Amino acid sequence: MPEDAAVAALRARLDAFAYRTVATRTGTVGYRCAGVANDTGLPVVMLHGIGSGAASWVAQLDATGLGAALYAWDAPGYGQTSNVADAEPHADAYADALEAWLDALGLDRVALVGHSLGAIMATKFASQSPQRVRGLFLCSPANGYGRADVQVRASKRDSRLAMLDKLGPAGMARERSDNLVAPDAADLPRAWVKWNMARVLPDGYRQATHLLSNGDVAGDLAQYVAAHAGPVAVAVGAHDGITPPAACEAIAEVAGVPLQIIDGAGHASYIETPDVLNAALAAWLGRVSAGAR
Questions:
Q1: For residue 277, what pLDDT is reported?
Q2: Which residues in 27-39 are b (16+ Cβ under 10 Å) and which e?
């Protein structure tokens, strides 16, 4: 399928979930949602990665069988969402923006799904407000470099910022998006990953790069687990070259859960193999709804 046709098909599906904005105490947040008409549905909040956005979750938004009210935000600095105040932010700034958004929507207790950089935001919020998080699903979590050597942190940060300055969002999408999918990924997921990456905003991406440099998923996850607030699941694509299975295994060990390996997927498993990922989400949500620990 040609790239334009693949994107058109996915954008047509996305049209069913209108883009919304809401004013919060930290600024505007843009988001998409599904299933909110069912007041009994468990609120599930989905947090995207550094090169993506709310639209990337379309295969979850239009999934059947999840039995949940789904909310996918554009993180601070993405889409129509306000940037965080600090030019070089830590995770608490994003957790604060997340809390403000949940408050504005009247969502008291939620289940959080974090993909890649979104896992840093999810675990920070969960560590600070475990009573509001009924469970965590971490998909290809980026641990962050908060505990790394200062020189390693600076090198990782500066190389990513240099790439942004050299290529811009469109160039990154053209030259880097294929790294997020498995080598034999189909045209449709390749096109959707590229389309979403091309739409990141430079200032938001720059702040998110600092977030990645400062993040510590393992440390924040340990705090949430100690609070016994809700079940945790960790999944990764078998061909993930960004957050490889070995790195995700270490995060799963913090939670004391088995790492779920998704065959045939790279970093963007929720786009590449949505049926498999959605089945894993459904199983986790069953445990959340049952009040499992």
A1: 98
A2: ebbbbbbbbeeee
